[in-house]
Every structure is written in structure tokens, then in C-alpha cells.
Structure to design on (276 residues):
């Protein structure tokens, strides 16, 4: 699990104890000025703590992806908006044959206790643009609760954490909230199998989001247009529920995925749907 965090000490106090036993939890700290790191280490002594080398959620995720050693990577927000009990849905979709399991608040079984009307409208618009340009069938482009097999990481072709930050303080492209759109576009244009699974977004526990609906929305739109030029559109198979299969993991780390499913006791993702 990769958890980007900046000044989330109060939220981590509540969030980390809810996580199931997994191979590793990687916290990527965004140079917090509160007790984020100390709290994480106190609540979860075996947590892996890294510091982002550039600012932004995208930079933090890229740093965490590079360091991940398990077969399955789960993107998980530190603010309490993601429900850890849903992790087995994502893992089961992967075991059923998907390369990427993408959470959606807008499929049956999904929902949001946090989204505003402006964000909902913006998400719908950006979704529509992406689906038209890339031939995808995403229902929730701007939702960042995702899981994928480790072999997907090189496909994402993200800016490495070793790349220096611009001297003028700007963020590199992909270092901001547009990272989720970049991931969704690149897995689609690469022809990977993407399954959407229902997810309910919970309200942030403490503090305020760093997301700016207007400026970040414009970055996402520019990202979609740039990614359309970067790769070719993908012809999709007909929508169908992702089949549930009895999969035998091929490595020791993949066994952790099965352990997560068993430990949390989720049911099979019968409502998962293939969107790319």
C-alpha cells in the first residue's frame, strides 16, 4: 500500500489502525510540519516511511511506487476518505483477471459522502472528454482509490523521484493531482484490462483538502488532451462483469492479496465491470 500524506497526523491516528495486514505499508511524507511521521511510526511501527523528493501528490505516489516490493500496489489516501474494508474488492478484481482495479463512486454500490456539486459536475465533464478521446468507459476518472499489479508500474512511465524539482518552484507535470488521470489514461492506451469496482468515498476526518476544483480541474483537462496525443485510442471489449475465478498466486507476495481477502472477509466483486 502506498499512502501519500502531508500534515495528516490526526487522520493517520484513525486511519492506520483500520488497515488489514499486508506485505507493506509505505507512507510518503510531503515534508509535513506536524507530527505525521512520528504518528505513523507510533501507530504502525513497521511502516516504511519515505520523504517525497518533489512536492505534490503525484510525486509522492511515484516515489512510493518505486519503493514498493509487493505484487499488488494499492493507492490509499491518508485523510480517511478511503474505506480500508473495500481493499478485498480491488484485490479480487485483480485475481479475477484485471491488470488494474479502479474504484468508482458512480457505479451501483458506490457513492460519496464528501463530493460537492461543483466537483461532481467537473468529474462528469472530464470523464466524458476522456471517454470520447480515448474510447474508454470510465465512470469516475478523478477518483484515486486504485489497485494494480506491480508489472503495471513501468507502463505508467512516471517522472522518476530522482528528477530534480524546477528551480522556480513549479511542479513537474504529473506531480500534482493530475497523477490519477495520467494513470487512468496510460493504462487504457497501453491496452491493459481495467475493472471498475464500487467504492464509497467517506468524508475527510480532520482538516481540509489541498485540492482546488478549478486549477486542478484545468490541469486534469490539459492532461487528458496531452495523453490523447501521447498514445493511441484503445478499442474496448463489450462491457461485462469481471469473472470471479479461483486464482492461485504465482509468488509469495501475491499470497498476501489472498490473505487480505480472507482477513477482511469481503465478498466477490460481482459488480466489477470492465472499462478498458
Amino acid at each position: 500500500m502506498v499512502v501519500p500524506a502531508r500534515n495528516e497526523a490526526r487522520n493517520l491516528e484513525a486511519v492506520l489502525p483500520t488497515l488489514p495486514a499486508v506485505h507493506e505499508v509505505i507512507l510518503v511524507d510531503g515534508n509535513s510540519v506536524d507530527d505525521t511521521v512520528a504518528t505513523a511510526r507510533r501507530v504502525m511501527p513497521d511502516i516504511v516511511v519515505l520523504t517525497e523528493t518533489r512536492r505534490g501528490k503525484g510525486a509522492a505516489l511515484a516515489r512510493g511506487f518505486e519503493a514498493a516490493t509487493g505484487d499488488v500496489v494499492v493507492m490509499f489516501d491518508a485523510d480517511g476518505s478511503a474505506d480500508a474494508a473495500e481493499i478485498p474488492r480491488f484485490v479480487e478484481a485483480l485475481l479475477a483477471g484485471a491488470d488494474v482495479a479502479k474504484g468508482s463512486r458512480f457505479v451501483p454500490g458506490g457513492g460519496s459522502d464528501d463530493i460537492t456539486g461543483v466537483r461532481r459536475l467537473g468529474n462528469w465533464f472530464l470523464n466524458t472528454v476522456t471517454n470520447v478521446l480515448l474510447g474508454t468507459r470510465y465512470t469516475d476518472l478523478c477518483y484515486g482509490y486504485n489497485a494494480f499489479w506491480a508489472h503495471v508500474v513501468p507502463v505508467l512511465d512516471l517522472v522518476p523521484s530522482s528528477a530534480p524539482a524546477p528551480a522556480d518552484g513549479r511542479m513537474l507535470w504529473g506531480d500534482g493531482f493530475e497523477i490519477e488521470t495520467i494513470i487512468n489514461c496510460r493504462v487504457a492506451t497501453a491496452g491493459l484490462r481495467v475493472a471498475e469496482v464500487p467504492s464509497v468515498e467517506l468524508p475527510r476526518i480532520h482538516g481540509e483538502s489541498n485540492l482546488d476544483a478549478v486549477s486542478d480541474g484545468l490541469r486534469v483537462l490539459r492532461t487528458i488532451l496531452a495523453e490523447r496525443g501521447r498514445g493511441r485510442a484503445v478499442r474496448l471489449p463489450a462491457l461485462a462483469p469481471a469473472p470471479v475465478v479461483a486464482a492461485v498466486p504465482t509468488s509469495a507476495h501475491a499470497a498476501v492479496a489472498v490473505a487480505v481477502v480472507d482477513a477482511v472477509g469481503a465478498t466477490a466483486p460481482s459488480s466489477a465491470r470492465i472499462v478498458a
Summary: The domain at 2-274 is CATH 3.90.550.10 (Spore Coat Polysaccharide Biosynthesis Protein SpsA; Chain A).
